[in-house]
Write a structure and sequence with these properties.
By secondary structure, the chain is an alpha/beta fold. It has two domains: about 210 residues, P-loop containing nucleotide triphosphate hydrolases (Rossmann fold, 3-Layer(aba) Sandwich), CATH 3.40.50.300; about 230 residues, P-loop containing nucleotide triphosphate hydrolases (Rossmann fold, 3-Layer(aba) Sandwich). About 25% of the residues lie in helices and about 20% in strands. The chain is built from 16 helices and 20 strands. It has a six-stranded mixed β-sheet, with helices on both faces. A six-stranded mixed β-sheet has the order 16-17-18-13-19-20, with helices on both faces. A hairpin with a 2-residue loop joins strand 9 and strand 10. About 50% of the residues are buried.
Length: about 575
């Protein structure tokens, strides 16, 4: 086999707050290969990827060996790592919104890939690179600013920058989370076409199965199973891998079944197998012996080659059955109604028609899904329904009363201000106050001006802890700041905050885009239960199977026009 272009050996990462995010990880990436890291949010995938780029906080402790080609990253100087970035290793960050300077045009962001190395991008190359990634009219579009592009479009521009110098390795952290299925496949195909080896961090099992040569399943900072993707995904040997696959949404099976329990806290040493408390097949030895990775799996129950047990995969029961759908009784009373709304930006020949025509009525207890390609106007439609923006044409009614109307810039309905609407934004990190501990963000609705009673700080902390546990975050530090969490964990904090408000309407933009299958399955059931209690929801997602499972109706948006069902 050829020499690895990226090699991890016994890598450990510990943050200043005591979290051991990576615990003894070893794997190799070979030329032209795509290796996918999958696992629950907070399992260490992003930390593993960022360690190879020198992007960990200065206070983080990094031990072991990470070799990028012939260069050792652990202990390397910042100047050396800067020389490698872009030329030898490209990077696609998980959060496309945070990757951009809001004051610079998109073209300047991509051109930075050359300017960082005192080079000038060849004429016309940026536009052609964006067009290959599906950006229509790229020479004109790239002169717009980040807020004028959708998350999916921003992600593709970041990919163009990462591949600018045809590096040996591209490290891509959730590069398709903001893309529809067709564009996700086209984008990864374009990444593979560069010839670079790709270290792909992803929660999307479908994308991984179609594009990754090998897959490494991560849990609590370790790799618990690794092998060829076709083998791991078709015949998983670790109970955790089986649980992840059982949680993958399938339109014919109803709501998927999430894994039981929660991941362990990584602030304290873990004795034995980290998955043992959640595993139905744990042996007594699993409580005090941390199983090594042997023959591609770290599980004595399923790997008879390590001599720990005579049990093997035939002893496992059938895949867990999906949970039945939660039946909802919708009311004929409309919670939100959009009447021929449109939203234009700019004037004259440069006007952008983000939403050209959209009419929609959502009833109490109803979940309506909106699908469509990136950049078609879905997020703009949500902002209009949430009265975050006023329409250029048309009107929006809340609970039967006019809330916003084209031609006016003021809200006409007090419901828009008193917590009746709760948004879940596509950018979860940006939607949380960076200075606040997570408990305060979750409990923020309890301090809204319209509330008659406001609980004290201690009570709000207790309520926040309960709500975080409901979204699978019982193990996190209540006083952690958003940047100490993964993007997926921030997304669940934002969901917990929205549900705590018990609103009449939830507007959710890609609410599960950064979540692995198991966590997403739990969130789907939580959203379904919330709708059952009477809350109306409008959910935008590129994941059509997810919408088909969860929603009462799914509408399609194309070129700013919402197609009626």
């Amino acid at each position: 086999m050829s020499k690895p272009v990226l090699h991890y050996e016994h890598v450990h990462v510990r943050y200043a707050n005591g979290v051991s995010a990576v615990r003894g990880v070893s794997f190799s990436l070979h030329p032209g290969e795509c290796l996918a890291l999958v696992g629950e949010s907070g399992c260490g995938k992003t930390t593993m990827a960022r360690a190879a780029l020198g992007l960990l906080p200065a206070t983080a402790s990094l031990h072991g060996s990470i070799r990028l080609g012939d260069d050792e990253i652990v202990g390397a100087t910042p100047e050396m790592i800067c020389r490698l970035r872009g030329l030898v290793v490209g990077f696609v960050a998980q959060n496309p919104f945070e990757a951009y300077n809001p004051l610079d045009q998109i073209e300047a962001h991509v051109a930075e890939a050359w300017r960082a190395h005192n080079q000038t991008p060849p004429r016309g190359l940026i536009g052609s690179a964006l067009e290959r990634l599906g950006i229509a009219e790229a020479p004109r579009q790239m002169r717009r600013y980040p807020h004028q592009w959708s998350g999916g479009m921003l992600q593709r521009a970041t990919i163009a920058a990462a591949a600018a110098h045809q590096p040996l390795v591209i490290i891509a952290d959730e590069p398709t989370s903001a893309l529809d299925a067709d564009r996700a496949d086209a984008t990864l195909a374009a990444l593979r076409a560069t010839g670079a080896a790709v270290l792909l961090v992803s929660h999307d099992i479908g994308v991984v199965s179609r594009h990754a040569d090998r897959v490494a399943v991560c849990y609590a900072g370790r790799v618990v199973e690794i092998g060829h993707s076709a083998e791991v995904l078709a015949q998983p040997r670790h109970p955790y891998t089986r649980g992840l696959l059982a949680a993958t949404p399938r339109a014919t099976r109803g709501l998927p079944m999430p894994l039981t329990g929660t991941p362990p806290s990584l602030n304290a040493p873990i004795l034995g197998c980290a998955f043992a408390p959640r595993c139905a097949f744990a042996l007594p030895a699993c409580e005090y012996q941390d199983p090594p990775l042997i023959d591609g799996v770290a599980c004595p129950v399923l790997n008879p080659n390590n001599g720990a047990s005579e049990m093997h995969s035939q002893n496992l029961p059938a895949e867990p059955k999906a949970a039945p759908m939660i039946k909802r009784a919708t009311s004929s009373a409309p919670v939100v109604e959009a009447r021929r709304v449109a939203r234009y930006y700019g004037r004259g020949p440069r006007v952008v028609e983000a939403v050209r025509a959209a009419s929609l009525v959502v009833q109490r207890g109803e979940i309506v899904g909106v699908s469509g390609p990136s950049g078609c106007g879905k997020s703009t439609l949500l902002r209009l329904l949430a009265t975050i923006e006023t329409p250029s044409i048309g009107e929006v009614l809340l609970d039967g009363t006019l809330a916003s109307r084209g031609g006016t810039h003021r809200l006409l309905n007090p419901l828009a201000r008193n917590g009746f609407i709760m948004p879940i934004f596509q950018d979860p990190l940006g939607s949380l106050d960076a200075r606040w501990p997570v408990w305060r963000s979750v409990a923020e609705p309890l301090t809204a001006p319209h509330r008659n009673e406001r609980p004290g700080m201690n009570r709000r902390r207790e309520i926040a802890r309960e709500r975080l546990a409901a979204v699978g975050l019982a193990h996190i530090d209540l006083d952690a700041r958003p940047r100490e969490l993964s993007i997926g964990q921030c997304q669940r904090v934002a969901i917990a905050r929205a549900l705590l408000a018990t609103p009449g309407l939830i507007i959710a933009d890609e609410p599960t885009s950064a979540l692995d299958a198991s966590v997403a399955a739990a969130i789907l059931r939580l959203l379904a239960a919330t709708a059952h209690s009477g809350t109306a929801m409008v959910i935008v997602s590129h994941d059509r199977p997810l919408l088909d499972i969860l929603c009462d109706r799914v509408l399609t948006m194309r070129d700013g026009v919402l197609e009626t069902s």
